[in-house]
Amino acid sequence: MINSKIHPRRIAREGVLQALYAQQFSEDEPTIVLNRIMALYPEKKKNSKFISSLFQCVLDHMDWANDMIKSHLQNWEFDRVAQIDRVLLRMGICEIFYMDDIPPKVSISEMVEISKVYSTEESSGFINGILDAVYKEFQQKNKN
Question: What CATH number should be reported for the domain holding residue 121?
């Protein structure tokens, strides 16, 4: 049962997280993986355009987003970052840089809140720190 107090975009982001996570371990085409996740959760269909667009954005910019994550890690190896956290960081970075209709602070907050459900106790602070640093860099680039 879905909690009706949860914003539909949060539910959509959780679907993208699930699809991107599953995609890492699948040899199927990304659209097949995404469609499987969408079929499991009919309530996500309301946001299918947002889901498809964020899913594809992360796939299209994964290497760039990984480099962005690596450049903000301090005393930590990328390979040691939890898989779920990597996916959430990629999603947040893509929202900040490529989804103009979403305020970056909302993207950061959403990834932090989702990490509280799907990842470790430490993950929310870690994700907040990385995405906040990424956002500051984004602001600097947009000033120039």
Answer: 1.10.940.10
Domain count, the chain: 1
Read off the tokens for 132: 């906040």
pLDDT per residue of the chain (144 residues) written in tens, 0 to 9: 444 577 889 989 999 999 999 999 999 999 999 999 888 877 767 788 999 999 999 999 999 999 999 999 988 899 999 999 999 999 999 999 999 999 999 999 999 999 999 999 999 999 999 999 999 998 888 876
DSSP 79: G
Say whether pTM exceeds 0.85.
Answer: yes
Residue 64 lies in a domain: yes
Distance CA 132, CA 17 (A): 20
Q: Is residue 30 part of a domain?
A: yes
Residues near 38 by Cβ (< 8 Å), separated by ≥ 6? 15, 19, 44, 45, 48, 51
Q: Structural domain of residue 21, as residue ranges?
A: 8-143
